[in-house]
UniProtKB/TrEMBL annotation, chain A:
<keyword id="KW-0689">Ribosomal protein</keyword>
<dbReference type="InterPro" id="IPR036853">
    <property type="entry name" value="Ribosomal_uL14_sf"/>
</dbReference>
<dbReference type="GO" id="GO:0006412">
    <property type="term" value="P:translation"/>
</dbReference>
<keyword id="KW-0496">Mitochondrion</keyword>
<dbReference type="Pfam" id="PF00238">
    <property type="entry name" value="Ribosomal_L14"/>
</dbReference>
<dbReference type="GO" id="GO:0005743">
    <property type="term" value="C:mitochondrial inner membrane"/>
</dbReference>
<protein>
    <recommendedName>
        <fullName>Large ribosomal subunit protein uL14m</fullName>
    </recommendedName>
</protein>
<dbReference type="InterPro" id="IPR000218">
    <property type="entry name" value="Ribosomal_uL14"/>
</dbReference>
<dbReference type="GO" id="GO:0003735">
    <property type="term" value="F:structural constituent of ribosome"/>
</dbReference>
Automatic annotation (TrEMBL), chain B:
<dbReference type="Pfam" id="PF01245">
    <property type="entry name" value="Ribosomal_L19"/>
</dbReference>
<protein>
    <recommendedName>
        <fullName>Large ribosomal subunit protein bL19m</fullName>
    </recommendedName>
</protein>
<dbReference type="GO" id="GO:0005762">
    <property type="term" value="C:mitochondrial large ribosomal subunit"/>
</dbReference>
<dbReference type="GO" id="GO:0003735">
    <property type="term" value="F:structural constituent of ribosome"/>
</dbReference>
<feature type="signal peptide">
    <location>
        <begin position="1"/>
        <end position="17"/>
    </location>
</feature>
<keyword id="KW-0732">Signal</keyword>
<comment type="similarity">
    <text>Belongs to the bacterial ribosomal protein bL19 family.</text>
</comment>
<keyword id="KW-0687">Ribonucleoprotein</keyword>
<dbReference type="InterPro" id="IPR038657">
    <property type="entry name" value="Ribosomal_bL19_sf"/>
</dbReference>
Length: 122, 185
């Protein structure tokens, strides 16, 4: 039996990696799970960094969309989306097909490279 | 007259002012799944599936950030609340972003789309087969046993319950006054 999809991202939520990196797209018998949220509260929203456990490795990631309803006028996605990131903030993949919310542009300085590889915005 | 009106099930295109978007405007096309709130806080939720990702945005009708709302297709569905589209096959929520507005004459009634939507396999986010949601727009492909079991939660007395509409506030006030007088003695 599986628990229902988690609405906002916290420890042990299964996430969906959205970019075209090899680590995110190669199939593995366990789905990628969040093991730590870099936040005062343990709840991750759009724009927070989290630690992911993928294929037995630890990897940092950026949350780009979650199932929890956020502020009005902001999009709510049907799956918890995540983009793999290095320690210095560079994205691992080269393209992001799924739409990214415009709110991420608030922290342009840290995530400018992630926004540069994103194709669609919502 | 050109009354601006839309209901759940009509396809809208909303352009909002966004400080973070290039060209400062953001256009979203989607089907309205529910309208909630009253007065200035009235909201409507638009749903669309873009690049295999389902997206819902809750817009506030009277927010000054909204620059334009175009009704691309005005129609009604069999229900007011189309939240079950989240558990339906994604083809029922995909709408072309560059859709042309469908023209309609002013005096015609709003067309009702009697589409029966097919669902993904269970589990769903809510048990839509239960009579409390009273959904007519789904083509349930569940076995008869499950449908009968769902009818266990029906409340047929609800529509005949008169005490729901009866105003009991004055009687309650009288009783409360009596009781408080007794307590003071």
């Amino acid at each position: 039996s599986i628990t229902g999809a988690c609405r906002a991202i916290q420890k042990l939520t299964r996430v969906r990696v959205v970019d075209n990196s090899t680590l995110g797209n190669t199939p593995y018998h366990r789905p990628p799970k969040c093991i730590h949220v870099y936040n005062k509260t343990g709840v991750g929203k759009v724009g927070d960094t989290i630690l992911l456990a993928i294929k037995g490795e630890k990897k940092k990631a950026l949350i780009v969309g979650h199932k929890m309803p956020a502020a009005p006028m902001t999009p709510r996605f049907d799956s918890n989306n995540v983009v793999l990131i290095e320690d210095n903030g560079n994205p691992t993949g080269t393209r992001i097909k799924t739409p990214i919310p415009y709110i991420l542009r608030r922290k342009e300085g840290e995530f400018s490279k992630v926004l540069a590889i994103a194709r669609n915005f919502v | 007259f050109n009354f601006f009106f839309f209901s759940a099930g009509s396809i809208l295109a909303v352009t909002t002012a966004d400080p973070y978007a290039n060209e400062k405007t953001n256009r979203f096309v989607g089907i309205c799944i529910q309208r909630g709130g009253k007065g200035l806080g009235a909201t409507f939720v638009l749903r669309n599936v873009i690049e295999d990702q389902g997206i819902e945005i809750c817009y506030e009708l009277y927010s000054p950030r909204i620059q334009a709302i175009e009704v691309l297709k005005l129609e009604k569905r069999l229900d007011d609340n189309l939240m079950y589209l989240r558990d339906a096959l994604p083809e029922y929520s995909t709408f072309d972003v560059n859709m042309k507005p469908v023209s309609r004459l002013d005096h015609e009634e709003i067309p009702v789309n009697k589409l029966q939507v097919r669902m993904k396999p269970k589990p769903w986010s809510k048990r839509w087969e239960r009579p409390k949601y009273n959904i007519k727009g789904i083509k349930f492909e569940l076995p008869e046993k499950k449908m009968k079991e769902a009818q266990k939660w029906s409340q047929p007395w609800l529509e005949f319950d008169m005490l729901r509409e009866y105003d009991t506030s004055k009687i309650e006030e009288k009783i409360w006054k009596e009781v408080s007088e007794e307590l003071k003695k």
